[in-house]
Amino acid sequence: MTDYIVRTEHLCKDFGVLKVLKDVSVSVERGEVVSVIGPSGSGKSTFLRCLNLLEEPTSGNVYFDGVDITTKRRDIGKYRQRIGMVFQNFNVFPNMTVLDNITLTPILEKKIPKEQARDEAKALLARVGLSDKWNEYPRKLSGGQKQRLAIVRALAMQPEVMLFDEPTSALDPEMVKEVLEVIAGLAKSGMTIINVTHEMAFAREVSDRVLFMDDGRIEEEGSPDELFTCPHNPRTSEFLSKVL
Amino acid sequence: MEKLVKLWVNYYPIFLQGLVGTLWLAAITVLAGTVLGMLIALMRMSRLKTLNVISQVYTDVLRGTPILLQLYFFWLALPKIVPFEMSDTSCIVVALIINSSSYISEIIRAGIAAVDKGQWEAARSLGLSETNVMMKVIMPQAIKNILPALGNQFVMMVKETSLASVFFVGELTTSYKSVQSMTFLSIQPLIIVGVIYLVVTTVLSKLVGVFERRMRVSD
Fold it and tell me: Within chain B, where are the H helices?
């Protein structure tokens, strides 16, 4: 049996009368890198946010490591610790230093000794080229640095999967690359990644599989080469012709 | 003018005593009102419908009726409800605390609501417990919005507490009444009291303003 780390079954999400997700069933294997593309408002971000229950699905199920996390009274915090998430707007904590941003949750929720948490955080900062910034406040960081900090903050919890919600959309063009390089590095290291993105070239380069979403449904999925070069669905070709 | 100076020289201890009473009343109503207001704000944001409704009604009633009417109500009703003796002053203090808690609960709620939604999401996505999300991430940021507003509430209360003079609670406007009955002068002591209020509220407002700017710089 395949080892699915994240799986959704007939996932639906309504916001009032607006149906944003319409019966989305997706399975992601451990170690797989999946990119989700599609027009704005197609439900990509909502889909991603359902995976760690930042949005409560209206119906359907989300399984993490084989466990249905949508059932009531499950301690969602325990699962979220295993699911890292990076947001479009960074959402770093402005009132804490870079190091405190990273060590807050490991110390509070995983009871990691403070010294150890700080050492691990510094090692992670070195990996993304932010070693000298550990004692700064986020207001002193550029957008690209903030996003790298946000990635490190998520990694410090040693998650089994990383969710990226348009991680470069809010960045100045010259900072996109430094963030994409970090994500590419993660992909190479074997991390399971679900990446909602508008960066088509990047999606094509790093993904094992690409999902095309439109109007709340997965309209097409396939390997990057297949989907980008000879899409079967006319909507996919239409979308690609606009963005490529 | 001469009369004013003479009045001040002869009676300044009474005025100053009144000022101390006013500042004390304002401080206690803001401090105790913050504790109570926090509770009301948490009820307001709770997921339990009943608690939402209770806090909503609480703030609506207290903000939608005149404060003087509330003072009368507590002054008449409290001694009948509680099983122990209550002085007029304690009745009025309780009434002022409850009144100010309704405004402060809104200050706290607004301060928390002003924290970017993304902060909640990021904190939750890391797997922090709801308590830690609130206490470690949201509150430290909300406090920067809340503290200056509480300062303004204190300035408000310096003026609002003058209503306590109706019940002869020791504060500045009551001092005016005392001096008036001792000297049979009414306009002059009123001017003195007015100037004291003006000086105190102006200084306090300026301090709050400086404090507010400091808070913003550190962001």
Answer: 2-45, 49-64, 67-81, 88-113, 117-125, 130-132, 139-160, 172-183, 187-217
Output DSSP code: residue A36: E
Rg (CA), chain A: 18
CB–CB contact B119 A91 (8 Å): yes
Contact yes or no for B128 and A108 at CB 8 A:
yes
Q: Does the beta carbon of B122 lie under 8 angstroms from any beta carbon of chain A?
A: yes
A→B interface, C-beta within 8 Å: 52, 54, 77-85, 87, 89, 91-95, 104-105, 108-109, 139, 150, 153-154, 157
Q: How far apart are CA B140 and CA B62, in angstroms?
A: 28
Chain B residue numbers with beta carbons less than 8 Å from the beta carbon of A139 are: 219
Minimal CA separation from A234 to chain B, in Å: 36
Q: What is the mean pLDDT of residues B188-206?
A: 94
- 8 Å CB contact of B123 and A154: no
Taking only the tens place, the pLDDT of each residue in A34-90 is 999 999 999 999 999 999 999 999 999 999 999 999 987 678 999 999 999 999 999
Those residues with Cβ within 8 angstroms of residue B192's Cβ, 6 or more apart along the chain or in another chain = B4, B7, B8, B15, B176
Is pLDDT above 70 for B104?
Answer: yes
Q: What is the pLDDT of chain A when averaged over all its residues?
A: 94
A93 has pLDDT over 60: yes
Structure-derived torsion over alpha carbons of residues B50, B52, B53, B58, reported in degrees to the nearest 10: 120
* C-alpha–C-alpha distance, residues B202 and A182, integer Å: 54
Q: Is B215 touching A (CB cutoff 8 A)?
A: no
Nearest CA in chain B to A79: B127
- Taking the Cβ of residue B85 and every Cβ of chain A, the question of whether any pair is shorter than 8 Å is answered with no
Sheet holding A209-214, edge to edge: A83-86, A161-165, A192-196, A33-37, A209-214, A217-222
Show residues of chain B in contact with A157, CB under 8 Å.
126-127
Report yes or no: A87 and B118 within 8 Å, Cβ to Cβ.
yes
pLDDT, tens only, B64-93: 999 999 999 999 999 999 888 889 999 999
